[in-house]
Amino acid sequence: MRNETQGQGRTVLVTGGSRGIGAAACRLAAADGWAVAVNCARDRAAADAVVAAIVGAGGQALAFQADVASDAEVRAMFAAIDAALPPLGGLVNNAGVVDVATRVDAMSVERLQRMFAINVFGSFYCAREAILRMTTKPAGAGPGAHAGGAIVNVSSAAAKLGGPGQYVDYAAAKGGIETFTIGLAKEVAGEGIRVNAVRPGIIATEIHASGGTPDRVRQIAPQLPMHRAGTADEVGEAIVWLLSGRSSYTTGSIVEVTGGR
Ligand code: NAP
Q: Whole-angstrom distance between the N-terminal and C-terminal Cα of the chain?
């Protein structure tokens, strides 16, 4: 355990916590004293493995399967977390998808709807539920401790690069996440809730294979300023700092974790 534990007695929900950056954030948040709600969409076994690693290291964690693009599933997941874990104090909107490389003039309606439903709407649904539980504003009855908290959104360097010829839809969704971060941070700053984002560059995870380019990291790494991709843990470290009280005067920030890209 670190000396400056910040999550003691509170729960953080990490969406897409079963793999990659989300799984790293789960493990590092647990080491920082958070009880961790590990969300996955389909791969329950992977989420259970993250939970087992945290519990094996002396932490507290449970897995919650829900598609963040479904408002009903998100509501049910938060109710289940309320019933099973300490009060919510953190949310990491990490769940995200890419699609195969395509020009804008060839993008289907189905592709666009999935891209924005998971990457943007899902973050709004989860943030709404988290704010209802964390806001210090007198709100009467309702779940949660109303003791403030922190939200960390996961953007992408694509938001500034644009993803031309590859995935402008994904880049635009992440641009939306950055504007969401700036606006929401101001909206809830007076209610004890900080909202920030991380902007990862090329990170070695399975997401590249799901976009049809399993070799992407190996191909791009030599062209990156540090001549290497980042690791999920390197992004996770920025996420847990933004969750923690160590970043208590930081809100509305987009933290680059791009290795200078
Ligand atoms: P990953 O290895 O592909 O993992 C994606 C995670 O999201 C999995 O846990 C997956 O769960 C979950 N997920 C997918 N769709 C979901 C849904 N509808 N509802 C709930 N969970 C869902 O991805 P990653 O590389 O760690 O990426 C994590 C975040 O970082 C994403 O927002 C991504 O856009 C962003 N990012 C990644 C990179 C990079 O180079 N890796 C760069 C910039 C930004 P299941 O396994 O159950 O489907």
A: 32
**pLDDT by residue (tens digit) across 122-147?**
999 999 999 999 999 976 567 888 99
User: Which residues pair with residue 13 across a beta bridge?
Assistant: 37, 91
What is the per-residue burial (b if ≥16 Cβ within 10 Å, else e) of 111-141? eeeebbbbbbbbbbbbbebbbebbbeeeeee
Taking the C-alpha atoms of residue 35 and residue 86, their distance in angstroms, rounded to an integer, is 7
Provide Rg for the chain, Cα atoms.
17
Cβ of 19 closer than 6 Å to ligand 1, yes or no, is yes
Q: Residue of the nearest CA to atom 23 in ligand 1?
A: 207
User: Distance, CA 174 to ligand 1 centroid (Å)?
Assistant: 13
Range of the domain at 233: 11-257
The CATH number covering residue 228 comes to 3.40.50.720
